[in-house]
Amino acid sequence: MRKRPLCIAALVWAAVVWLLGSVGVPGFGHSSPAFPEGEARESALVAGNVYKLDINEKQTVLYLKQTILIKQTNRSAVQQEYPFDRIKVRMKNQESAVEISMGDRILVKGDLEEIPIPGNPGQFHERAYYYARKVKWYQKGKNVQVIEKECDKSLVLQGKVKQAMSNGIRKAFSKEKAGIMEAMLLGEKENMEKETGFLFQILGCSHILAVSGLHLSVMGGGMFRLLRRCSVPFGGAAGISALCMFFYGGVTGNSASVLRAAIMFAVFMGSFILKRTYDLLSAVSLAAILLLCESPCYLYDSSFLLSFGAVLGIGVVYPVFFSTKVRGIRDGFRTTIAVWFIILPLTLYFFFQIPLWGSVVSVFFLPLSPALLIFGAAAGISSSLLTAGIGLIFALPASGILEIMLWTGEVIKALPGALWNAGQPDIWQCVVYYVAAGLFLKNKNRRIGQFLYGIALVLLLFPLPKGSMKITFLDVGQGDCACIQMAQGHCYLIDGGSTTVSKVGRYRILPFLKASGIRKIQGVFVSHMDADHVNGITELLEMIISREAGIEIQTLFLSQCSGTQEQMREIEILGKKAGCEIIYIQKGSQIKDKNLEIYCLGPEQVYEDSNESSQVLHVSWKGFDLLFTGDVEGEGEKRILESLQESETAWEVLKVAHHGSGNSTGENFLQCVKPQKAVISCGKDNSYGHPHRELLDRLKKYSGQILLTKEQGAVSVIVRNPSFSEK
Q: Is residue 203 a contact partner of residue 362, using CB atoms and an 8 Å limit?
């Protein structure tokens, strides 16, 4: 290490970045961005250069850099301009009547919003992702105009090359395979079907879909050899190849993995020119330093960490485990083992699951990746510059490889354990793993090192059960979803839906289940058929049927309602296709699972109104009592109150009915329940005004604490007999 000062410098700089971010220094963490004092975020006027744009049938998404915030005073035409952060602008296509291209400088009017932080465990961290790419704001574009066409010539050239390549790919490949090749070669995944991306994930080949070091090593090395064959001097060929790789990185979006690979390729070429020895660890350390100087928030970015982790696996672990190099499939297995040795905790921390079969199968596709890239790029270039016929010839081998990969993915998808949900490890588990891994590498032939690494690996993959019950009220916007987790791994869901979060099952509920390491749900209680309670459950069932979820639901608990018979039949059909047992419950039904008891207090009869027919559930565990009330109101609430008045239960937690509506959870009801904590699930700035002021006033009289998901995100109640805590 002493012979590699760049390695030490990279570690020190990473530690400094982390410390500065921990204490909240702007630019080094995820604290809210600065905004000019006194300025309004509504209808803000922003100018910037378009460096990326995505256009689909409904909306246009623009990414702006070199931005300024403009304020025009009311009394004069004098404008004040403030340097501003990068912005992601979303606007409906009808809002823009002008044609916009990469490199244009535009003026946008619209509301500015801070990028949100995730409200639930497992939810995609938008702020971490975009801050790493120096994008600090969202803007809802209401009006846009082009100030200067083709202002940034380099961006204009990148845009034209990208568009030409995209057109060539579409001419040479079928629609499905063109979407894959655009993702693979241009970093554009908008035209690739989600099902296709899932198959690559099962195969353990998701890295192929992201423009990475593999792409640059294949293309950069190929270009260098081509230039040398054309008699270009050694230094010129090396310099041109390195510059082209940086340009290609710009075309594909300058991801962390691409920039890392471009820097390392440039160092590699430079070592040849200067006749110096190329050191992989020094090169990767230099890349880390430069990237973290450019954007310190890369330190928390999954693509940055996985990219550098893979290189460390090859540069550090491979030489320790395997003293000699071999070729072919054996080398693929060795490389896979070395890389996974480093990236396993990172993969679990960011993605929560492992492609068990794909980790093995991907080895066989690794040698085919260069051929896939070369033939795909040749097909796109020749179709664009020459004729579609020549492009089709180059596309044939690439299409054949893709066909084999997709077919293999379908086969593996049908196997049990295609994606194994291990859950998101805690930071301390990752630290223990890496400490033990370091000791193992240093003393790999000693039993103590092997033993410690084995213990750390087990702790990472199979965390110790906790002697408690955990109830999590998820932040699903304007809707409801609660998850009950038992120490022995059993799990129950109560509702799951939203009217304000699109695809809430896919993007809020399922990620939470995966992050929690939940592979089987013993039961799902659907309180009633309103969309804000059931549409996420419907999505889960559909994903289970298509084998996308990686989870299993044993039982669906429904209740009769004369006004929602059609919706009931639809979810019954889906449930049976997903392998669920369908059970209808009503007042008096009881479910027991060891120390957990769930009593159904309602509905007592079949109502016409969906809300009155809501299930009301009494969850009891070792003296802890929680009341779920769905959207019950009116006659349904009166009947429930009669039952509650007959019992002497002391309620620790009340899940407040109907998202805090003033028409439910009346005075008499609260006077009877008197919960220690009351939880309200509702969306921020929802159109109903939930929770209503009169309801909050009532709760303050009878409840010890009021918790709102719209303010706190997911609310977790951890029960450790005989006490419980909230976080």
A: yes
Cα–Cα distance measured from residue 431 to residue 434, given in angstroms and rounded to the nearest whole number:
5
Point out which residues pair with 680 in neighbouring strands: 708
Tell me which residue of 81, 83, 63, 71 sits closest to 137, measured CA to CA: 63
Tokens found for residue 598: 């769930």
Order the strands of the 469-473 sheet from edge to edge: 581-584, 555-558, 523-525, 491-498, 479-485, 469-473, 715-720, 723-726
Q: Is the CB of residue 516 less than 8 Å from the CB of residue 122?
A: yes
Q: Judging by beta carbons within 10 Å of its beta carbon (0-12, 13-18, 19+), is residue 272 exposed, middle or buried?
A: middle
Q: Which residue has the higher pLDDT, 509 or 197?
A: 509
C-alpha dihedral (377, 151, 254, 396), degrees to nearest 10: -10
Whether the Cβ atoms of residue 592 and residue 581 lie closer than 8 Å to each other: no
pLDDT given at position 414: 85
User: Can you tell me which residue has the tokens 């602008």?
Assistant: 89
CA 246/CA 494 separation, integer angstroms = 51
- Cα 670–chain centre separation: 39
b/e per residue 346-381 (b: at least 16 CB within 10 A): bbbbbbbbbbbbbeebbbebbebbbebbbbbbbbbb
CA neighbours within 13 Å on the CB side: how many for 268? Answer: 20
Average pLDDT over residues 238-260: 87
ω into 691 cis (within 30 of 0): yes
